[in-house]
Task: structure prediction
Amino acid sequence: MNDGWAGGTDFVFTKENLVKENARHGNYCLRIPGGNTSFFGRPYFTAEAFDATFSLYVRGKGNEVRVSLKHVTEEAAKGPHPHGQYVKVATTLDLKAKTTPGWQRLTGSVKLSRGWHYLSLRSADEVWIDAIQLEKNA
Result:
């Protein structure tokens, strides 16, 4: 499956979102539907702060895509949020691009703080992503 991707609404990723045709790396790429919602990846924890390079490949139909790395700065108490809990976040990297039918690589440098982080993606139209990397700088 897609290893933890979810949507900000009731959308559920299925095997239909894993696309074999025209993958950039490996056997599949991930098709993310468009709309006014934010899709996000599985949270990950960094035990220490470090400088890193983030990259991913994206393609689409000429629409704008926004890819952000978020740092969870504070977990809030359970409340009226439909999924049970709010968290406060800070954007540590924000990349925007106009998609093309061919793969293009988005990349940026980021200083990650110790703590929980996740990847967020937003686009008005569907996009395909592949080969997401976060590499600690030497």
Remarks:
- Residues 85 and 119 are 18 Å apart (CA to CA).
